[in-house]
Amino acid sequence: MRRLVAETSLEPRHLVLPLFVADGIDEPRPIASMPGVVQHTRDSLRRAAADAVAAGVGGLMLFGVPREQDKDATGSIGWVEDGILNVALRDLAADLGDATVLMADTCLDEFTDHGHCGVLDAHGRVDNDATNELYVKLAVAQAESGAHVVSPSGMMDGQVAAIRDGLDAAGHTDTAILAYAAKYASGFYGPFREAVGSSLRGDRRTYQQDPANGREALREVELDIDEGADIVMVKPAMAYLDVVRAVADVSPVPVAAYQVSGEYAMISAAAANGWIDLRTVALETLTSIRRAGADIVLTYWAAQAAHWLA
Ligand code: PBG
Questions:
Q1: Domains and CATH numbers, the chain
Q2: For the chain, what percentages of helix, strand and coil (3-state, to nearest 5) are there?
Q3: Over its length of 310 residues, how does the chain's per-residue pLDDT go in tens digits?
């Protein structure tokens, strides 16, 4: 009876697995604050991706971690052909073809020596328009490396339009854009900064949203859709389910939500203490995010959950 009347479904195809690939390491490197998640080598990435795809996940979201000495003020290692993210995209595109949707994070924070999502002006502030030009370089390099979807996550104004124009001009008219449309300046990204070896000092409050604001999310979503976003995302997920619901109620394009590193860390830590049951709680949270209206959920449990759901 429960199965017959359940309103919300959670299937592997709804889930996207974020993966980290690092340059200059010989062994996968564990991320202490995210038990079970690692920075991959090129080889271990290929195995993890193949496993996730075999388990039925809907997509993969790739983040690149360059060597410290390759970071610079503009993040140029992000768009050069032998940058780790582009190399890994080519590996996965060759291995997986159209068996999954291959997505790439289109942002500078992993690649800059100051750790901000954009380039800085003479006053040390993030320069919105100069940053958009670099996002175009990133997006074109990622599309050329085999990404089906580019994912601007830096919250610059006009980033989606700039990327759409740049991709089209380079002939990548079929490359889709997943826009981090409503991305909050959140404490829940803490473990991610370890995951990508971020150099950030300070915070992102000048370009990410204030957790106090809900209506602003709808405005951001509307702008991104006008600019050509194919999927819009709300991030983080669990503390923003009202925002997910509000966006899902009005969005004419699919809605994604990102269950971020801190959400994963929090639940993993409680489970490791024996205080909650990992599988029950992980699946409950994913179901809740779907119930709130997300078509797609990015989660570090994607492959694991796909196995649980099999
Ligand atoms: C920026 C980016 C971040 C995350 C995804 N893309 C970090 C930030 O905005 O500070 C966070 C993901 C997570 O915490 O799991 N490229």
A1: 9-309 (3.20.20.70)
A2: 45, 20, 40
A3: 999 999 999 999 999 999 999 999 999 999 999 999 999 999 999 999 999 999 999 999 999 999 999 999 999 999 999 999 999 999 999 999 999 999 999 999 999 999 999 999 999 999 999 999 999 999 999 999 999 999 999 999 999 999 999 999 999 999 999 999 999 999 999 999 888 888 787 788 888 899 999 999 999 999 999 999 999 999 999 999 999 999 999 999 999 999 999 999 999 999 999 999 999 999 999 999 999 999 999 999 999 999 999 9
Q: Which atom of ligand 1 is nearest to the CA of 109?
A: 16
Q: Compute the distance from residue 58 Cα to the ligand 1 centre, in Å.
A: 20
What's the CA-to-centroid distance between 198 and ligand 1, angstroms? 10
CA of 107 to the centre of ligand 1 (A): 9
Q: How far apart are CA 100 and CA 80, in angstroms?
A: 25
Determine if ligand 1 sits within 6 Å of the CB of residue 79. no
Q: Whose CA is nearest to atom 12 of ligand 1?
A: 260
Q: Is 137 helix (H, G, I), strand (E, B) or coil?
A: helix
**Is residue 137 flagged as an active site residue?**
no
Name the pTM for this structure: 0.97
- Residue given tokens 């075999």 in the structure block: 54
| 222 assigned ligand-binding residue | no
Cα 274 from Cα 280, distance rounded (Å): 13
Measured on CA atoms in the order 168, 62, 106, 160, is the torsion positive or negative? positive
Ligand 1 mutation target, pool 65, 106, 109, 264, most atoms within 8 A of CB: 109
Ligand 1 contact via 301 beta carbon (within 6 Å): no
